[in-house]
Amino acid sequence: MEEIFNPEALPSFFRDVEIIGPADLELPKYCLAHSRLNAGSSSKTIEITTKGSPVLFMTKSVREIYENNDFATIKNLEKNANDDLRSVYTNISSNGDKAWTKVRKNDREFYMSWSNNGSIWAYTENMTALNDTTLNAQVQIGTYSKSNSILGIHTYNLSIPVMIAESAIAYIVARAVSGIIAEGLGFTIATFSLLLAQAASRVGLTGFSFFIPSAVVSAISSVLVFAIVFIGLQYLWNWLNRKYTIRLQIFNWDDKNSWKVNGQYLSNAKICGDNQELNFELPKMLKPGEAVTPPGFDPVEVLDSVCYYAIVVWENDNTFLQVCDMAIQVQKNDTEGFMWAFSCPRFTNNKQAANNGLEDPKAYLDGVHWNSEPLGFRIRSTSGKNPVIFALDALSGAPDDLYNINIHINKEQSNNIAANYLLLNE
Predict the structure, then answer these.
(1) Which of the listed residues 1, 175, 374, 418 has the most CB atoms within 10 Å of its CB?
(2) How many other CB atoms sit within 10 Å of the CB of residue 405?
(3) What residues make up the domain containing 183?
């Protein structure tokens, strides 16, 4: 049975936070305040970029499940997240402004939608001056599953006129992301820009447009995919239509180096959504205290592990062809990194490969030597000998033809004694 949203009580993992009221009742107040904004003296084009890849917070026990690629337990985590968040996602997809409630603590106002066991929020982390008339606002979207104690955050940068309130900016991003969640993995970047402009108009910022620079389109697409399929939210996979679907999850456990996914080559495959480029950065791993969460957020368990994370979803482009292949390049710097490739044939087992060193993705796929242990293997990459682990959940016959691959960068520890022995003797 789905939980019923209770607008009079916040979930237990938010403490001493005041409920102000639903967004639809707050909008007239924003419109009145913004009627005094001299839009002619400020830029009417708001640039939006992303702060970086999504960040995952988790407990030590959950981290070990992912690190050890325990796909059976990972599927249970995903089911729990689905149970925690299904009503929340349905609410924001179906009910517009009425799904979002303004809350306040320590004079910081932001927006939330919640159930007893899950929540999504929009919170303006900080605002810094770009010039005399424009600020940069960093707005996070956070998604929390109580049953798993897993929190995911992705953050956007917006260049905004100085007279717009923090909570209004949070509302604009909340409503735009709501629209993308409702649209699912068929979203377009143009739709996101339009949804932002429509939300801005609802708070009285008429005539404003939102511009996404071409250099960050791929990064914006990747964080929007994360918003839609946070830890595998199952009810959103209805679009599959029996196609082969490849879901790649990359975890950066490296606390000294950022890594960048920079380019791909596809054969009978396409990225979900309209953006077909693959170019985003995974910053180095954070310490838990270095990440920002809204005031009052107090999870049941200590979230002691924080890593930057990316999710890429491909599907086969032509269902009549017999194979779906892809290869990507992952860089630690301009000259070092590793290659990864995957093949999903129709009638034989899946194949996976990875090698140290950088190559053109097409050339790598054309000449690839598939690993003899596609369900799980590891390599050392770059002059730093960084360990990288690769794991696949099924060789064939996956439910709904959905295959999951995990890549762990700089992941040294494992409960798998045989795997540790191989790594130590490389």
Answers:
(1) 175
(2) 20
(3) 18-231
**Number of Cβ within a 10 Å radius of residue 194:** 15
Final residue of a structural domain among 231, 246, 277: 231
User: What 3-state DSSP class applies to 356?
Assistant: strand
Task: List b or e across 170-181, with b for residues whose CB sees 16 or more CB atoms inside 10 angstroms.
Answer: bbbbbbbbbbbb
CATH number for the domain harbouring residue 341: 2.60.270.50
What order of strands is seen across the sheet that includes strand 337-345? 279-282, 259-267, 323-331, 337-345, 351-356
Between β-strands 209-211 and 45-50, what pairing exists: parallel, antiparallel or unpaired? parallel
Q: Of 426, 400, 18, give the one whose Cα is nearest residue 239.
A: 400
Rounded CA gap, 280 and 351, in Å?
Answer: 25
Residue whose C-alpha is closest to residue 399's, from 92, 79, 97: 79
Percent over 90 (pLDDT), the chain: 59
Stretch 51-55: mean pLDDT: 90
Judge contact between 309 and 281, C-beta under 8 A: no
Tell how strand 323-331 and strand 337-345 pair up: antiparallel
Distance, CA of 127 to CA of 135 (rounded, Å) = 6
In this structure, are strands 402-409 and 386-392 parallel, antiparallel, or unpaired? antiparallel
Number of separate domains in the chain: 2
| Tokens found for residue 263 | 């380019």
For tokens 């071409």, name the residue. 214
Give pTM, 2 decimals: 0.89
CA distance 181 to 411: 32
What pLDDT, on the 0 to 100 scale, is given for residue 415? 46
Q: Is the pLDDT of residue 87 over 50?
A: yes
Q: Are residues 194 and 53 in the same domain?
A: yes
For residues 350 and 344, what is the distance between their CA atoms, to the nearest angstrom? Answer: 5
d(CA 273, CA 186): 5
Q: In which residue are the tokens 């070092």 written?
A: 336
